[in-house]
Amino acid sequence: MSITFDNVSKKYNNDYVALDEVSFVIKPNEFVSIVGPSGAGKTTLLRMLLAEERPTHGRVLLHDIDIHLLSGKDINFVRRKIGAVFQDFRLLPHKNVYENIAFAMEAAGRPDEEIESDVPHVLELVDLGSKIWNFPHELSGGEKQRVAIARAIVNQPDIIIADEPTGNLDPVNTYDIVQILKKINNLGTTVILTTHNKGVIDSIGRRVITIQDGRIVRDDMTGKYIL
Amino acid sequence: MEKIEFKTKLKRVIKAGFFNFWRSGYISFASILVMIITLSVIGGVIFIGAVLNITMAELRNKVDINVYFITTAPENDILSLKTKIETLPEVSSVEYINREQALDNFRLRHENDQITIQALEELGDNPLGAVLNIKAKEPSQYEGIANFLNEENILSSQGQKIIDKINYFENRTAIDKLSRIVNSVENLGLVTSLALVIVSIIITFNTVRLTIYISREEISVMQLVGASKNYVKGPFVATGILVGLISGLVTTILFFPICYWLGNTTQNFFIGLNVFDYYIGNFFQIAFIIIFSGVAIGAVSSFLAVRKYLKL
C-alpha cells in the first residue's frame, strides 16, 4: 500500500504552521526515516497518517483513498492496517503482555484460536517469549517497546509507524529495536520511522526525509542524518 | 479478516470488564463504597415513604367527626340519617354507637375513676345520647361534612331537633392543622427524598467519571489500535454494571442488620410500623429496586463517561 502526502499543510490557531505544503510518496515495502529538529512537524505528519489529525489543506492518500474523507468506522479499519509504535510505548497498564497484544487482535475481530496461536509467536519474534504474563510496570523500557512492536505487527499491517521508538532507550535496546524494525521491513512491511538519533539513521542506510519548520528540506534515497 | 460472532464479542467484553474491575482494585472498591451510599439513600427513601404513608394513614384514621344525639332521639331517625350521610362522596365510613354502647364505653374509660362512676350510678338513668362517628376520605373534607350536617335541618319524624352537638367545630383548629401537616409532610418528604436521590446519583456519577478519567489515555490507545467505539465502551460499561450489582447486593444485605436494629425504635416512634417486618415483607420489590438502580446507575454513568473520551 503506497502512501501519498499531497500538498499537505497544517496550521494551528490559524497562524502557527506545523506543516507547510508537504508532498512525498512512499512506495510499498520502503523503509523511510523522517528526521528533523523537535517541532519540525514529524509527529504531526504521523498523526495525520493515523487520522488523529486533519490537514488544513491537501490530502493524505493510502493507496488511492483519502483517509480524511473516511467515516469513523472506516478509520478503524485503516488503523488496523497500520501498526503504531511510540516513544512512550502506550501499553494498556491493566493488561498483561499477552492481553495487550490480544487486544489489538480482538479489536480487529480475530477469532480466539488465532489469538492463542499468534500472540506467543509474535512475542518470540521480538524475543520476549518469557514475559508473556507480566504487566507493563514489570518490564524495562526496551521490553515495553518490544511489546508495543509486537502489538503493532500482530495484525500483519501494511505499514508500521514508529514515532521516536528509541527515544527513551539505551544504546543496546536502541540497536535491538532498529534490528527488529529492519526485520519487519524485510518481511514486506512498509516502515516509517522518526528519530533524533544520528547513529540509528546512519546505520539503516535507507531513504531519509529531512523536515525543518514544517517543510521538506532533503529527501535522499540512501540518506545520512544531515542537519 | 474473519468475522467473529456476537457471542464471542460479548464474552470478551465481559471478561475485559471483569479484569478491569479486579485489577483496579482500590478504585473499584471506592466506587462500590460510593455506590452503596447512593443505593442506601434510595432504599432509605423507600422506607421513609412507607413510614410516612402508614403514619399518615393512621393519623387520618384517628380524625373523625362525632355527632352526638339527644337522649330522646329515636333510633330509626338516627339510622336513616346514617344512611343519608353514607351516600355523601367525601365520607369513607360511618359508625353508629347506640346509647348503651356509649354508656359501656364511658364506663370503660372511667374504670379507675370511682367518683365519676358513682355519680353515674346516682343518676340512675343513662345520660348519654347515641353517637355517629364519621370518617372522611381526606382530612380536608371534614369541613364540608360538618357544614352539611349543620345546614340540613335534621329533625326527627316528629319534627323535633335530634342533634345535640357536632364536635367538629370544637376540633376544627386541630383538624385543620393536622390536615395541613399531613399535606406538607408528604410534599416535603417527596421533595427531600427526590433531592437526596438526585444528589447521591450525581456523586456516584462523578466518581465513575473520575475512575474513567484515569483511563482516558488507555481509551485513546485502544482507539489507536483500531478498536471500534463500542468495543472500547463495552468493558467500561461491564465494569460499571459489576460495581452496581455488587453494591446492590451488599446494600440489600446491609439493610438486614440496620432494619433489625431500627425495627423496635420505629415501631414505638411511628405508629405501629416495624421497618424490619416491612423489609422482610417487601424484600423482593425493595431488593429489585436497589439492585436495578445500582446496575442502571453504573451502566449509564460509565457509558456517558467513556463517550467523553472517545474520538472519531
| Quaternary assembly | heterodimer
At the third CATH level, what is the topology name of chain A?
Rossmann fold
**What distance lies between the first and last C-alpha atoms of chain B, to the nearest angstrom?**
22 Å
The geometry of chain B reads as elongated
In the CATH hierarchy, what is the superfamily of chain A? P-loop containing nucleotide triphosphate hydrolases
Question: What is the architecture of chain A at the second tier of CATH?
Answer: 3-Layer(aba) Sandwich
- The SSE order of chain A reads EEEHEEHEHHHEHEHEE
Spatial strand order of the main sheet of chain A: 6-7-8-3-9-10
**Count of DSSP-assigned helices of chain A:** 7
CATH class of chain A: Alpha Beta
How many domains comprise the coordinates of chain B? 2
- Measured as a percent range, the helix fraction of chain A is 25-40%
How does the helix and strand content of chain B classify structurally? Answer: alpha+beta
| Strand-residue proportion of chain A | 25-35%
Q: Count of DSSP helices of chain B?
A: 11
Main sheet characteristics of chain A: 6 strands, mixed
Helices and strands of chain B, in order, run as HHEHEHHEHEHHHHH
Low-confidence stretches of chain A: none
- Please give the number of β-strands of chain B: 4
- Chain pair forming the biggest interface: A-B, 31 and 24 residues
Total E-strand runs of chain A? 10
Membrane topology (chain A): Peripheral membrane protein
Subcellular location (chain A): Cell membrane
Domain ABC transporter (chain A): 3-227
Subunit structure (chain A): Homodimer. Forms a membrane-associated complex with FtsX.
